[in-house]
Amino acid sequence: MNGAGKPSPVLSVVIPTMGRDILIRTLESLAEAEGFEEVEVIVAGRVPDPEVAGRLREFCVRHPGVLHLDIQFETGDSSRKKNAGAAAAHAPLIAFMDDDVVVAPDWPRRIVEPFSDPEVGLASGPSLVPDDINRIGRLAGLALSSRAAGYVAERYRRNRAAAYPVDWDRIIGCNAIYRREAFLQMGEFPSDFYPGEEMIAACRTEKAGWKLVFVPAAWVKHYPRQSVRRFWRQMWTYGATRIRLLRGGVSFNPLPLVPGFWVGGTVALMALSPFWGWAAWLLAADLGLYALMALGVAVETAFRTRRWGDLGLWGMVPLMHLAYGLAEWTEFFRPGTDFSEGAH
Fold it and tell me: What is the per-residue pLDDT across 251-291, written as a single tens digit (0 to 9) for each?
């Protein structure tokens, strides 16, 4: 029992926010979900829009289990909001969720199921593409869930029926849950690391000896970047983060470096092709095979979704790889760019 004489929550959900209006939709989806009565929600972040702030206050009045922490930090804002929310949480399980998602109708029940195993310290569920978004947003989400995204695509698809163990880099930060002991043992989210603080935390949790689990049934629908510019920026930060993670001492996985090698090799062949015929031939073969791969991914996706407009993925996949690969090289030679929202 808590201090007010009410049953203690089974689950605390921390939502770091910058005060976007979609936050209210996220909260409403939680309130409508099965098991919400056993959930404590902590919204961490300043809400500058008066209309959104008013709707948030009304929501907190209707749902006493929702707490708003009006906080903002000059540095390490994302991590510090999450850590402050976790410090205010009362439940033995602490979930972290982005402020632009809609949860599955049974998300609260599904996300806690793996913790019946006392060795599980961290679990995550998929981030699916919503239906009510524009064409660019849909293609952006489909690119991340396609074969062209490699092994990370499983974070964006309900690829299995039952929960299964995963490595740290299969965890997705917008839909993740920690056992409190595991969260404290891994040392909270690093405030000096953004973006990628969630990956550092997942890696530390795994290194501490905890089991990590992926729960396909505990999905959320995450609203992706709905413009080409924002999708490019998203992929750029992902690529730069991969190099920062390697500097941060995470377990080495060569697969995320493939886009960087492809971009570097293609640029080298373009530079050499005016001087050597073999370089021009290899460049043509490289671009031709890549185009066939991207087309194959687009056709496979359109066949699966039964929506021929998804063939536009043929153009989105190269954009994803190009931004990711260029960012890896840029971060390698010029590290330390600030990618926080407030810096742009």
Answer: 778 888 999 999 999 999 999 999 999 999 999 999 999 99
Residue at a domain's end among 226, 257, 275:
226
CB atoms within 10 A of CB 57: 12
pTM for the structure as a whole: 0.89
Number of domains in the chain: 2
- Domain interval for residue 268: 246-343
Residue 113 lies in a domain: yes
For the residues of 177-190, what is the DSSP string, one character each?
EEEHHHHHHHTS--
Angle at 135 between CA 131 and CA 140, to 5 degrees: 85
| 92-131 pLDDT per residue, tens | 999 999 999 999 999 999 999 999 999 999 999 999 988 8
- Whether the CB-CB separation of 205 and 176 falls below 8 Å is answered with no
Residue type present at position 212: L
Same domain, 131 and 23: yes
Strand-pair category, 101-103 with 39-44: unpaired
Beta-carbon contacts of residue 120 (< 8 Å; ≥ 6 apart): 114, 179, 210, 211, 212, 213
Q: Is the same domain home to 85 and 177? A: yes
